[in-house]
Amino acid sequence: MDKLDTVFSCPFCNHGTSVECRIDMKNLIGEASCRICQENFSTTVTALTEPIDIYSEWIDECERVNNVDDDGVPVEDDID
């Protein structure tokens, strides 16, 4: 079985392999952080969480935030 990635491209500065994901099982917190632009993201983790899961949640959250219009309504919920 192939190993999953543990370093990723930053969604803010686009540097490849600049994002590292760390998992703190004691506190059940996962963190993705860019060593170039210092952006970071934290989320809760379980025993099954892998670094790719943390990075994917960060990307999903970025997309969710970018799909909100000026009045704070998500674009898919906005009725014209």
From TrEMBL:
It comes from Helianthus annuus. This is Transcription elongation factor 1 homolog. SUPFAM superfamilies: Zinc beta-ribbon. GO terms for molecular function: translation elongation factor activity; zinc ion binding. Keywords: Elongation factor, Metal-binding, Nucleus, Protein biosynthesis, Transcription, Transcription regulation, Zinc, Zinc-finger. It is found in: Nucleus. Transcription elongation factor implicated in the maintenance of proper chromatin structure in actively transcribed regions. It comes from the Eukaryota. GO terms for cellular component: nucleus. Belongs to the ELOF1 family.
